[in-house]
Each structure stands twice: as C-alpha cells, then as structure tokens.
Design a protein that fits this description.
Shape: globular
Distance between the termini: 113 Å
Largest sheet: 6 strands, antiparallel
Radius of gyration: 25 Å
CATH superfamily of the largest domain: Probable inorganic polyphosphate/atp-NAD kinase, domain 2
Structural class: alpha+beta
Helix content: 10-25%
Strand order of the largest sheet: 6-5-16-13-8-9
Number of strands: 16
CATH class of the largest domain: Mainly Beta
CATH topology of the largest domain: Tumour Suppressor Smad4
Number of helices: 6
Order of helices and strands: EHEHEHEHEEEEEEHEEEEEEH
CATH architecture of the largest domain: Sandwich
C-alpha cells in the first residue's frame, strides 16, 4: 500500500531586515567646563538628528541631563565609528581634540564656544546652514603639519601648535644650544625656546616676536623666549630636518606640547624635534581665507587710528 503523503505546510521564515548603514556619523567632544556648553550641545544634537545624521556624544557630557540625548559613548568608540568629529569649545579644546585623534586623521569641525576661535571658526548658529555643504562635501580640508619631540626617556609628544622648552619650577633663565641636522646653529641664554608649526606661528610664538607663517609652508619655526641678547632672533628651518635642543647645565627642564601636556627632566638633557608622520585635518568653508581670519581675529593690518 502507498503511504499517504503528509500535508506539510510551508514554513515561511521572515527575512532579516538589513541594518541601514547611516550616510554619515558625526562624533561630538569638547569642553565641559562652561555652563553654556550644554545648551549649545543640545541645539547641535537636535540639528544633526533632524538632518538624519547619526550623532555620537562623548560620555564626558553625561554630567547634566539632556532633553534630547539619551545615550553617550566613550571617546574610543566615537573615534572608531565617526566620519567627522565636532570639537565644541575654544582653540584650547580644539588642540586637545586634535591630540586625541592623532594618527586616526579624522577631520575636525571646530565650533567656537570660547573667545578667539582661530581654529574653531564656526559659530554654533552657523552649523545648520553648513550641514548641506558637509553632506555634499562642498567644503575643503585643511591639512596641518604636526611636530613631535623624541625625549630622553624614549617617549614622544606631539604638538599641532608648538613644543616649548623652558626651565621647570623656576623663573630663572637657561642656557640653550640649538642645532639643525647636527650643525650647530646658536647658543644663547633665555627663558626658553618655542618650536612651532605654521599653525602655531600665530600662537605663543607670535607673542614672543615670531613671524606669521602661511599654513602651506613646510617649515618649523624656532623662537627664543626673551633671549638675553639683541642678536638672537626667530629662525625658520625646512621641516625635512631635525632640530636638536640641548640644555647642559644641571637644572630642571620642562618640555610642553600645545600648552597642555608636559614632562620634566633633569639636565643635561637633549630633545630632538621634527615633523610628525601624520597630519591633522580641519574642516573649512570652501571659500574661507586665512588672511581674512588674521584680519578678523587678530586685527592684523588694521589701522587702529581710524
């Protein structure tokens, strides 16, 4: 006898929905020390989410309850996932953000919530208008050289603006010996020396009498700090070589990067400073102009008599 065929119903297995990959992911980090920062953060987050941009907010902002932000992320997680990083604060915050991004070279969009805003050129209210340009890549990336110092303990520090060598825990001067590619340049007594990038030429170096150097220049600037002589002046070197700074007398010497990270060493001591292997990428308006920024922010070339 033939066995009766069992009536089997086809089991319909629903297909798994593919997770939609966002067109763009933006991370936000910044300075939590200002009261107004949280209101600005809420506005930025709302603007980005309204524009369907996935937004990851640094856990450092999880100190004050937000009406809009329900989840925060570690900085490491943000750096792994983000296409762009918003640095929310002033220029000091921007330098800190650049140091954290480091070799990852994620473009930084600086939103100014500080005073000068030389590097953080966008105001909070300008972001909404700029998002369309960001989505269509109608902007330019300014790539900035970074310098690094090899230190006696084999560690390395990096500076987007500058690396400063001076005397630690004392206002007294130190004797500095400067050489370039193993050729002695000069010996002098001063409060210290600033080694800066073109980006940093408008910072501490400028205050110490250094030159303004255009951003595209492949150079390193050495600016003595209050030298005890009229004959030692700022010098500019090709960034293809190595600057060596020696302090021979037995004093405590401090080396500082971007005014934020530092180490102390007991002299005699030697530091080798050169161009770093990576650059920092900064999001700029397509038609932004460095010289207009100098005029607007530093009043460069302005006649104060008018």
């Amino acid at each position: 006898m033939r066995a009766k065929k069992a009536n089997r119903k086809k089991l319909l297995i629903p297909e798994k929905k593919k997770k939609k990959i966002p067109d763009m992911i933006i991370g936000i980090t910044g300075n939590t020390g200002k009261k107004e920062i949280y209101k600005i953060l809420d506005d930025i987050y709302q603007t980005l989410t309204d524009c369907k941009i996935e937004t990851l907010v640094d856990v450092v902002f999880d100190k004050k309850k937000s009406k809009y932000i329900s989840k925060y992320y570690s900085l490491n997680s943000i750096l792994k996932k983000s296409d762009y990083i918003i640095s929310l604060g002033g220029d000091g915050t921007f330098l800190s953000t650049a140091r954290k991004i480091g070799t990852k070279e994620i473009p930084i969009l600086g939103i100014n919530a500080g005073n000068l805003g030389f590097m953080s050129e966008f105001q909070p209210e300008e972001l909404e208008l700029f998002i369309k340009d960001l989505k269509t890549k109608n902007f330019r990336l300014s790539e900035r050289n970074v310098i690094k110092s090899l230190m006696p303990d084999k560690s390395v520090i990096h500076g987007l603006n500058d690396i400063v060598i001076d005397r630690a825990n004392s206002i007294r001067m130190i004797e500095i010996e400067l050489s370039y590619n193993n050729e002695e340049v000069v010996k002098f007594v001063a409060d210290g020396i600033i080694i800066s990038t073109p980006t940093g030429s408008t910072g501490y170096s400028l205050s110490a009498g250094g030159p303004i150097v255009t951003l595209e220049s492949n150079v390193i600037i050495a600016t003595p700090i209050c030298p005890h002589t009229l004959t030692v002046r700022p010098m500019i070197f090709p960034d293809t070589g190595v600057l060596k700074i020696k302090v021979n007398k037995k004093v405590m010497v401090r080396i500082t990067a971007d005014g934020q990270t530092y180490k102390n060493f007991k002299a005699p001591v030697e530091f080798k400073i050169m161009k770093s292997e990576y650059k920092i990428k900064i999001v700029k308006r397509k038609h932004s102009n460095y010289f207009k920024t100098l005029n607007n922010k530093l009043f460069w070339g302005k006649d104060i008599r008018k």
